[in-house]
Amino acid sequence: MEQTITILIYIHAFLGGLGLISGLFSVITKKGSSFHKKFGKLFSIGMIGSSLISLPICWLPNHKNLFLFLIGLFTIYLVLAGNRALSFKNKHKKGANLLDKLISGAMLFFSIVMIIIGIYGITNAIDNSVLFLFFGVFGAFMTIKDFKFYTTFSTSKNAWLKNHIGKMIGAFIASITAFIVAGIGIGSLIAWITPSILGTFYIIYWNRKVKQ
Q1: Contacts (Cβ under 8 Å, ≥6 apart) of 37
Q2: Which of 6, 96, 113, 171 is deepest in the core (most CB within 10 A)?
Q3: b/e per residue, 108-119, with b = 16+ CB within 10 A?
Q4: Separation of alpha carbons 212 and 209, rounded Å
Q5: How many domains does the chain have?
Q6: Distances (CA, A) of 129 to 112, 116, 170
């Protein structure tokens, strides 16, 4: 059993590394170029594959971790929603389909779960409960914006692009955070939160650039 877990962890780490490296190249290459698209696809494959493998690992003996399980779901949501945003480039698109709503709705549900766990943990002085609350609020904010986007994308200029950039950069931030926490072994509160805060400023920068 332990050997199987070790193999899964190595595959998870390899795909995570693929996501991190390809994500970096996707960020630094010209947006919309063939290189950007190719690296973006590799990034999506790496991040979704790595996150999917992490989900069962988080429930195995000696590896149980509810927080990492929920973060895995959060990462999958970011990549899926980020790629789905590209379909809204067509102004004649009638609106979000069932898949779009399921992706955002599921993440909204799990975000509420994280918020509840975080509030309960903080109230009962459980370590690192603020992480549940932080990412829960962050996830709820993003998914509520999704449903607003679904009704205004046709009238808001480049809304699809801002949505795509925000989600994919968010997923890239997740890969950096995973490298810092799991790769380097720095699991402090600051290590978890700092990349998200810095990444948020980067997303704001790109949103303003796209708007201009």
Answers
A1: none
A2: 171
A3: bebbebbbebbe
A4: 5
A5: 1
A6: 14, 10, 21
Residues 6+ apart with CB under 8 A from 29: 35, 36, 39
Question: Which stretches of 97-188 are DSSP H helices?
Answer: 98-123, 129-152, 159-178
Task: Mention every residue, 6+ apart, whose C-beta is less than 8 A from residue 42.
Answer: 18, 19, 22, 26
CB atoms within 10 A of CB 168: 25
CA 90 to each of CA 32, 61, 78, 86, 94: distance values in angstroms, whole numbers, following the listed order: 16, 47, 21, 8, 9
pLDDT for 210 equals 74
pLDDT tens, position by position, 117-134: 999 999 998 988 999 999
What are the start-end ranges of the H helices in 2-64? 2-28, 34-57
CB of 135 closer than 8 Å to CB of 189: no
Dihedral class, residue 158 (left if φ above 0, else alpha if ψ from -120 to 50, else beta) = left
SS3 145: helix
Single out the residue of 8, 81, 102 nearest to residue 49, CA to CA: 8
**CB neighbour list of residue 151: distance below 8 Å, 6 or more residues apart:** 95
Count of CB atoms within 10 A of residue 83's CB? 17
Domain that holds residue 98: 2-211
Burial of 42 (C-beta count, 10 Å sphere; 0-12/13-18/19+): middle
